[in-house]
Amino acid sequence: MAFTDFKSADQVQKADQVRYEDKNFITFTPKALPDYFVREFEFNRENFDVFGSEASRCEAIIYPILREACKSFIQEYSLWSHKSIAADEILTGTPDYVVAKRSQLGKNVLDFPLVLVAEAKQNDFVRGWGQCLAEMVAAQRLNGNTVLPVYGIVTDGEIWQFGRLVESVFTKNLSRATIDRLEEVYGAVFKLIELSVSLDCQCDSLAKSEEPHDR
């Protein structure tokens, strides 16, 4: 069963016994973007129909924002576009975007997924969250650590919604960001990546401290 076969978050919840709650776990603090990015972004929005199709939203809106947010973490974390993942025969498919650790095997190998991004195709956020939560559950299994949060974003380019999976609890952020406040969208995406990276580093440090030492 592919990720896209899940029609809603509650379908994933029932299949994997995930509890739902909605509350704000991140705040949308505006973060300034580089001038070159803003100029290019505004040029595209003013001169092209960037919301006219799913492909144009991905190419002109979603991917550039994710790419810019990932630059600050590029030494150890990277952004993958349409990279297949599989936790088992059911939880398998191709997320639209994944932020994950860089593997020691090379930039073409995806390591632990931290942030999963799904496009709300035809502005269908219910189905978008079904796909995204299924991807988050798969990522959690691949990570092998249920305490390490896995974050999700569902967006149609204009509206950006955020979620978090920790152990068996899925939290959907009550507030959402909109593209007319570009710096809030960017700040939220950046914060999400920053949170997941910092917590991942803490888990690594804890794991190393618990390793047996030679006597």
Could you please describe the fold and organization of this structure?
With 215 residues, the protein is an alpha+beta fold. The protein has one domain: tt1808, chain A, CATH 3.90.1570. It is 40% helix and 25% strand. It contains five helices and ten strands; from the N terminus they run αβααβββββαββββα. The chain has helices at 9-16, 35-47, 54-70, 125-143, 182-209, and strands at 19-22, 77-81, 85-86, 92-93, 97-103, 106-119, 150-155, 159-166, 169-172, 177-178. Strands 1, 2, 5, 6, 7, 8, 9 and 10 form an eight-stranded mixed β-sheet that branches. Strands 3-4 form a two-stranded antiparallel sheet. Helix 1 runs parallel beside helix 4 and helix 3 packs across helix 5. The longest helix has 28 residues, at 182-209. The protein starts with 8 loop residues before the first helix and ends in a 6-residue tail after the last helix. The model has no long low-confidence stretch (mean pLDDT 90).
